Give the backbone structure.
Amino acid sequence: MPRDAITYDNEGVAAVLDEIGDLLELKGENVFRAVTYRAVARAIRDLREPIAALVEQDRLGEIPKVGPSVKDAIVQLVSTGTSVRHEELKAAVPSGLITLLGVPGVGPATARIIYDNLRITTVDELEEAAKAHRLRELPKIQAKTEENILKSIASLKQRTGRNLVHHARAAATAMVDWMRQETGIEAIAIAGSLRRYRETIGDIDLLVASLAAGPVMDALIRAPSVERVLAHGETKTSVIVARGLQIDLRVVPPDSWGAALLYFTGSKEHNVRLRGYALKKKLLLNEYGLYRVGAEARGQEIASRTEEEIYAALGMAPIPPELREDHGEIDAAVAHTLPALVRLDEVRGDLHTHTNWTDGHDTLEAMARRARAKGYAYWAVTDHSPGLGMTNGLGAERITARVEEARRLNEELAPFRILVGTEVDIRANGSLDYPDDMLARFDIVSASVHSAFGQTKEVMTERVLTAMRHPLVTQISHPTGRLLERRDPHALDLQALIDTAVKTGTWVEINGGPERLDLPDVWVRKALDKGVTLVANSDAHAVEEIDWMEFAVATARRGWAPGAAIANTAELAAMLARRKRR
Ligand code: DGT
Ligand code: CA
Ligand code: CA
Ligand code: ZN
């Protein structure tokens, strides 16, 4: 395969199949063919293994609806990076139409009407037309569609091109494993924003300690995940892997490992402040070491091998990477008042997860077993209330069945404990989507907003505070409602939310879903200052996503949270006792 061909992962293949579906429809071809391409795209997104593996083992027939033409497209995409059918269709459809299709919510029919009537070919023109209400005057296009198009454009403009943390983490871990295997070198570290667990990641920075850079750089370039080589040098090599993620690799001598790791972990702001602090002590800090000013040229460093050594030589406590943002961590390290941050291994259970009874992929039993295997003492299933019609919310009978199923499994899995909870919708007026007698049946009641996001700040704030004042609501989930790179937080007075959390004893969630990370780190810190009890949750919708607890804990750490502030670091009885009085 040519080195610069794009090798698609499951999402990549699915996206092209969706586009083929759209293009077929645009051309007015048989709609069933379009439906088939889209159905297969959905099935590929749900696969638990790489689509390339199915191609290799000639198992595409296992995916429902894959006929000869869909099969050809998939095989071509996986092996050559393009599909003949896709290219033909693109060539046959005006590019302006394809641009319009790229706006979420603009389907083939709408794109055709807009294009034929207004000759619009760019997103900017589309936005202008929507703002001037010229779309709603077109046949079959309603005011609501026009509003949705404007929202989609706003959301497109939210995209910064930065990457969600779990994608970056997966790509980085795979590359570190590959590099260890290929070079035999153990001293390979993830640095940069990914080591600090920033909420989104610009690029991945890897650091290797070795005196021979050449073979290390070569190992990176021949990694199977590499799609493109951007730069290949003696001290730095940059490549692109799946999803357009960039990896920068630097090779440094083992003697300056600590100094280099400190430097390339950043943040830049932390580095600048630390360097300034060192200078006041007549010390020079750079990526090679810490020197007495004037001695750097002679290579006589005071410290350089480990980060701890360098912080210690500066008279500071070691600063965890998550805090290195120049948010007061250096003063705190000098004063030895940094908090003992919550650790992932302190978490005893997860209190927000879903099963296939609502919008999750896996069974209660599969989810529970995974949680138990992770070492948790307890785990709560919190499937949705019926308000979200689409997610098949639980009614009274299914709650009874669920309680029974949990009781049975608990006998088998003891002392591990399944708690039956709910994620109940907060309706537009602040009331909850279950009556009190039903809410009282759950051990954990998580309340959250899933609708009417467009309310004014006053209305939304009152809505959420009303739910928090309800005695049966244990925790408020993903409080801001933001979706990183996709949707702004809804208008909400978070300071009022924090005050109400303290007053009512409602816990505030740190949702570890990589798209959410909600409560955001800066607000975690403000919540802690006021004494809010926080809860770190995965919001897993599949067994693998139970591991998203990592990102909830990282967000807590970035917000300076100690273990004691997080409800689910406590043993079961203590955790339950910490719920507000019901
Ligand atoms: P990102 O990639 O945008 O998510 O953020 P970072 O923090 O990973 O930034 P990146 O990849 O540009 O650089 C990695 C680290 O290298 C950064 O955190 C600190 C260090 N660094 C880069 N440029 C500078 C600089 O001009 N001055 C200092 N002091 N440090 C720098
Ligand atoms: Ca970076
Ligand atoms: Ca970089
Ligand atoms: Zn949820």
User: Anything to note?
Assistant: The CA atoms of residues 332 and 338 lie 5 Å apart. The first helix runs from residue 10 to 26.
